[in-house]
Design a protein that fits this description.
Number of domains: 3
CATH superfamily of the largest domain: Nucleoside phosphorylase/phosphoribosyltransferase catalytic domain
Distance between the termini: 39 Å
Number of helices: 17
CATH class of the largest domain: Alpha Beta
Largest sheet: 4 strands, mixed
CATH topology of the largest domain: Pyrimidine Nucleoside Phosphorylase, Chain A, domain 2
Length: 434
């Protein structure tokens, strides 16, 4: 196999064989193929796409590049949730402890920030000491005993995807249905789960910005899951504005903790509970949606889900006291309130631009080696449809980089638009795919 020939073939929109895909991906994983050739193939796939057969072959080689977990001995239903990524999306952090309290085993493998989208692992690591790099045996034991373990990919689980994932983040090859599908589903199938719910984002802050593209991605993901014998459904949810109010690692961790104490934004809680209801109904088909929603809300009202989050934080090396005293977390050196430039109804938010502004402030990575500033980010004060007066607080920025603050603060209000009349606000949950 000559890498040049494979790249050229895909760049000319030709179909790669299973063997060509396998040889190229495993060659890159071993280190025989350099980053620049893998980047070229990723861009060719990004531009020209893949057939269903190619996508399945890519998923298979990623899955089989490492070990696959076996939770068949777990005394109960084993399931997970995954989001295709957006801005302010921290639902995984709330949902995992909620489901664990309700008896679902949740072996959650999450990712880091990708493009403009924040990553669950980076948010968890904003808690001092929180270890997302558990070995497989320790993670397995945690899931069995505590019903939940929150980790990143180990060196043994889908190593091909792990290596490619980091490259996609910095080569602008994220928004590709086959690449997203193979990356997500290889990790999820490797978890050894029985059920999976997918939160497929749509809108200007999503990787798939049109409903047609989001629907195509949802169908691709669901079909792969079912092909591997995993009960799989997808909810297409709106990402024309951030989910919740917080953007940035610690800010989103804090909002998650507040949500589990009954003080979360309505949109964040509604999406979380809707996703959880899908899992609970897989585990118990006789359960109604109303019953599944009520069960989750009780874990918030009685404090058990928040206590589970603290418990798992402690067992994974983090300091749970941080979650009990959220305001004591170290503050960024610089903060600035950006105010509404005019009166009117908030009618539009360039959500992706806000995600990239967060990276500029230090909340994400521009290159693979960048260090994240956990106390950098932003807090939005209003949602679409809110009526503002000129001068009202619109968004507050936080960073340790004075130059970045100056650059972002000058232009960020341009990412918000206003109308004199009440605008149309898209529904939060757009569609269900099964």
């Amino acid at each position: 196999m000559i890498p040049y020939q494979i790249i050229e073939k895909k760049s000319h929109r030709q179909t790669l064989s299973d063997a060509e895909i396998k040889d190229f991906i495993l060659g890159y994983t071993r280190g025989d193929i350099p980053d620049y050739q893998m980047s070229a193939l990723l861009m060719a796939i990004f531009i020209n796409g893949m057939t269903t057969e190619e996508t399945l072959a890519l998923t298979k080689v990623m899955l089989e590049s490492g070990e696959q977990m076996d939770f068949s001995a777990a005394p109960g239903f084993v399931a997970d949730k995954h989001s295709t990524g957006g801005v302010g999306d921290k639902a995984s952090i709330l949902l995992a402890p909620i489901l664990a309290v309700l008896g679902i085993h949740v072996p959650m493998i999450s990712g880091r920030g990708l493009g403009h989208s924040g990553g669950t692992l980076d948010k968890l690591e904003s808690i001092p000491g929180f270890n997302v790099n558990l070995e497989s045996d320790a993670w397995f034991e945690l899931v069995i005993k505590e019903h939940v373990g929150l980790i990143g990919q180990t060196g043994n689980i889908c190593p091909a995807d792990k290596k490619i994932y980091s490259l996609r983040d910095v080569t602008a090859t994220v928004r590709s249905i086959p690449l997203i599908s193979a990356s997500i589903m290889s990790k999820k199938i490797a978890e050894g789960i029985q059920g999976l719910v997918l939160d497929v984002k749509t809108g200007n802050g999503a990787f798939m910005q049109t409903l047609d593209d989001s629907r195509a991605l949802a169908n691709s993901l669901v079909s792969i899951g079912k092909g591997y014998g995993v009960q799989t459904t997808a909810l297409i949810t709106d990402m024309n504005q951030p989910l919740g109010l917080a953007i940035g690692n610690w800010f989103e961790m804090k909002e998650s903790a507040e949500g589990l104490q009954g003080h979360g934004p309505d949109d964040l809680m509604d999406v979380t509970f809707a996703l959880g209801a899908e899992i609970l109904k897989m585990a118990n088909p006789d359960l109604s949606t109303a019953e599944a929603l009520a069960m989750q809300k009780r874990t918030v009202d009685d404090g058990s889900a928040f206590e589970k989050l603290k418990r798992i934080t402690e067992l994974q090396g983090g300091d749970p006291r941080v979650l009990d005293n959220l305001e004591a977390y170290p503050k960024a050196r610089f903060s600035e309130v950006i105010r509404a430039p005019q009166s009117g109804y908030l009618s539009g938010i360039d959500t992706m631009a806000l995600g990239f502004a967060g990276i500029q402030l230090g909340a994400g990575r521009r290159v693979i080696t960048d260090e994240i500033e956990y106390s950098s980010g932003m807090y939005i004060h209003h949602k679409l449809g809110d009526k503002l007066q000129a001068g009202d607080a619109l968004i507050t920025l936080y960073t340790n980089d004075e130059k970045a603050m100056s650059e972002v603060s000058r232009q960020i209000s341009n990412n918000f638009s206003f109308t004199e009349s009440n605008p149309y606000v898209p529904p939060l949950i757009v569609e269900r795919i099964e």
